[in-house]
Amino acid sequence: MATMTFHHLPEEKREAILSAARREFSRVPFAKTSINRIIQEAGIPRGSFYMYFEDKEDLLKIVLQSMMDEIKITLMASLMQSGGQLRATALQLHDHMYGIYQSKENQDFMKNMMLYFQSTVEQAKSENKGEQPFKDKLFRLIPLLDESQFADPSLEGKKAAVDIVFSVLKSVMVNSFMKEQTMDESREMLIRYLDIIENGYLRK
Fold first, then answer.
1. Residue 132: left if φ>0, alpha if ψ -120 to 50, beta else—which one?
2. pLDDT digits (tens, 9 = 90+) for 64-108
3. For the chain, N or C: smaller number of CB within 10 Å?
């Protein structure tokens, strides 16, 4: 991760570096991105870059962490607004992400990140990294959920429900972004899946 030197920079300078990085990561697939373009746009010497980061993968982690922090704020607000309802929270987060997606730069960034993660998923599995850290963060939100909505209110039951709902949300959004579907089309698909999760697929 980024060094303490980076974290101790003035906020304005940190934001300039992250903004330059995000634009570069939006411009081309990650493998083709250029550190030189980032430092030129951010206005920092090349030597300073390596005082802040090990490499561009290290910088990417900081950019993604910044985005995750923003998503966490939205997620918390959605949970509070919905009274801890999992379905409403997933739909609100979907709409928020689609609002971000309206920007052409953000569209390109998300597509490039999806390609990057697809190319590294097998490596992550082989290193036993997977998605567990993200799931662990989601599971910390369980105490904020309304317990009355769960058929199985045990901790493991709630973990399973949260895991399923957010896995479906991720899958729907990835497919929607890659197929360039509208927000309404994507939302309709998510609702269809949430209905199945809530009601089950077997005929009663």
1. alpha
2. 888 888 888 888 999 999 999 999 999 999 999 888 878 888 889
3. C
Q: Answer whether 20's CB lies under 8 Å from 41's CB.
A: yes
Residues 6+ apart with CB under 8 A from 37: 20, 24, 27
The two tokens of residue 190 are: 């998510």
Asked if 21 and 66 touch (Cβ cutoff 8 Å), the reply is no
Q: What is the pTM of this model?
A: 0.78
Contact 101, 177 (CB under 8 A): yes
pLDDT at 20 over 60: yes
Q: How far apart are CA 163 and CA 61, in angstroms?
A: 23
Domain 4-199 sits in CATH at: 1.10.357.10
**Are 53 and 62 spatial neighbours (Cβ–Cβ below 8 Å)?**
yes
Please return the burial class of 22, using the count of CB atoms within 10 Å of its CB with bins 0-12, 13-18 and 19+.
Answer: buried
Q: Which two tokens stand for residue 42?
A: 């951010």
Residue type, 154: S
Would you give the DSSP letter of residue 29?
Answer: -
d(CA 185, CA 89): 18
CB atoms within 10 A of CB 164: 14
Rounded to an integer, what distance in angstroms lies between the CA atom of residue 169 and that of residue 193? 9
Tell me the C-alpha distance between 180 and 174, whole Å: 10
C-alpha angle 166-87-133 in degrees, rounded to nearest 5: 25
